[in-house]
Design a protein that fits this description.
single chain, mainly beta, five-stranded mixed sheet, five-stranded antiparallel sheet, about 40% strand
Length: about 150
């Protein structure tokens, strides 16, 4: 039977039709919103500041060798020593010995080592190294929409 079906496969026609099946609506779960954020979010990535547009707005990104990226850093930016804490909206940014910690509510984000934080006026610059590739990102405080 299988051989006959295979041998005559060009002559066999299958018709598949769609069928509507009504499904009753599912009732909303009342406690879903309260259960949604039971645990704090944690993330380690060199772009975490770019993922927080309510706090900072990325204005520049450059990548390449360390010498090239260092030349892209505008003059006047000062490296922030370990322990420096900066506040942008509800985001708290802490420069640590080799990495950068970002707190927003219960959530904690990390820019992994090696990372350096620079500041000039109200803007900050973040330099992150991954092997021979260095990335520089410059941020301005987010503007509130009124």
């Amino acid at each position: 039977m299988i051989v006959a079906g295979y041998a005559n496969r060009d002559r066999i026609k299958l018709k598949i039709a769609s069928v509507y099946v009504p499904v009753p609506p599912k009732a909303a779960q009342a406690d879903l919103a309260t259960r949604r954020r039971e645990h704090a979010l944690g993330l380690a990535a060199p772009w975490v500041l770019s993922a927080l547009p309510e706090c900072l707005r990325q204005t520049f990104e450059g990548a390449g060798s360390r010498a090239y990226v260092s030349s892209l850093l505008p003059s006047g930016y000062a490296i922030q020593p370990a322990g420096t804490q900066l506040q942008f909206g509800d985001c708290s940014i802490v420069a640590r010995e080799k990495d950068v910690l970002v707190r927003r509510g219960q959530d904690r984000f990390y820019v992994p080592a090696p990372a350096q934080l620079f500041k000039k006026g109200s803007s900050i610059a973040l330099m992150h190294e991954a092997g021979a590739r260095v990335t520089l990102r410059i941020y301005e405080p987010a503007t509130s929409k009124l």
